[in-house]
UniProtKB/TrEMBL annotation:
Stored SUPFAM superfamilies: C-terminal effector domain of the bipartite response regulators (SSF46894), CheY-like (SSF52172)
Organism: Telluria aromaticivorans
Protein name: Response regulator transcription factor
Keyword tags: DNA-binding, Phosphoprotein
CDD domains linked: LuxR_C_like, REC_NarL-like
Domain (Response regulatory) ranges: 1-115
Record flagged with keyword Glycoprotein: no
Amino acid sequence: MLADDHPIVMTGFAMSLEAAGMQVVGQAKTPSEAVALYASQQPDVVILDMRFGTELTGLDAAQSILKDDPGAKIIFLSQFDQDSLIKETYRMGAHAFVTKDCDPSDLVTAVRHAHDGKLYFLPQIASRLASMAVRGDVTPQSQLDERGLEIFKLMAEGMTNAEIAEKLDLSTKTISNVSQSIKEKLGVHRQANITLLAVKHGLIEP
């Protein structure tokens, strides 16, 4: 089963999979459709786009699918390859993460591995996961609490301390103290670097 909000992408992948002798039992264009279609079709493997043009994401769809079927075999498909997203997909129980520019043969191999209950790593994805394991999980998500992460995302979007304080109904002094603490914890001080870090870890859109 395929779920992607770009019909051309889905059609191309469906043709590649069918040419390899696989049957595409359904195609969904939204996360909600994906959850409903999975429930009705019970496919051996589901390929989920990471991001849709809606508030819900492929991760949201996967969580719903896995809640009802913990044994679901999921492959994530994305043009985004931030480290935190890659790690989160495997933490959830996904069998593979492939990029939209991958060779069709890689997608076919990923599906076969997932069908057999095995993990599949593209070489570049495996390298990044290994690097994360060596250096530790030094991400904003691991270093900041929920409020700190919320403030960090607003900082990354370019909001001033005063604007963040007004949005969160807190004092400017409080936000100033928290933002300084965030910069020190993450080792970033320039606005451009704060924004780049948030994009890298999938906290804001590029």
